[in-house]
Amino acid sequence: MDWLVAPDVGPLLFVGLSAASFVTAFIAVFTGAAGGVILLAIMATVMPPAVVIPVHTVVMLGTGISRTAIMWRFVLRGTVLPFIVGATIGAAAGAKVFVALPMSWLQAILGAFILLVTWMPHLGRIGAERGRFAVLGFGTVFLGVFVSATGSLLAPFVASASPDRHNVAATMGALMTIAHVAKLAAFGFIGFAIGSFVPLMAAMIVTGTLGNWLGEVALHRTTEQRFRLVFQLVLTLLGLRLLWSAASELGWF
Hints:
Blueprint: H1 11-31, H2 35-46, H3 49-71, H4 77-96, H5 103-119, H6 129-147, H7 151-161, H8 165-187, H9 198-221, H10 224-249
Helix pairs in contact: 1-2, 1-9, 2-3, 3-8, 3-9, 4-6, 4-8, 5-7, 5-10, 6-7, 6-8, 7-8
């Protein structure tokens, strides 16, 4: 079984990360957000920093593809093409641009923005949908190059455009799949030295797919009102966490 174990990832951690992928995939479908951020936080505490973002990106791509395949009929088709256009430009720009803005300020801006759009949903419907999602495609991928998990930035806008909770979960899966493909192209992660992590990534994708399936089952059994409440609470917590992290790094308390 030694062939399954990647550098610095023993058998127990292998099983633990696979289980984390299952749980966070379920959370991502059932709450409409947060799964990718939680998984990234877990991986960042137990894996070598140099491989966290590429491995996380590949795993999220695999689970995103499976979620889209399971829930394809609920994807808001009109958002996909504009998002692809924006994501392509964002990938090209993100791969070349050095961002001098400190991470603490970037976290603060993202946190405040997420809270604003979550609790003032009409802001998520400003402008034509095609133009709005082209801009979101650019921002999601461009920022994702530096902070990796940017689904929480996209989620309030998808929720504003979605008439139903199934549309939220399915469209988030489809658009974040596009974002992860663009990030891989931008950085050439496919050629990155993560070959030894292939068994781990495969296991996490399989368990993530199971989490997606169970999440959809749970989604069918909840109400729209309950889903929207959980969605708002989760995004609020994520926004506040970003602001807290930013304030701590800036030494404000």
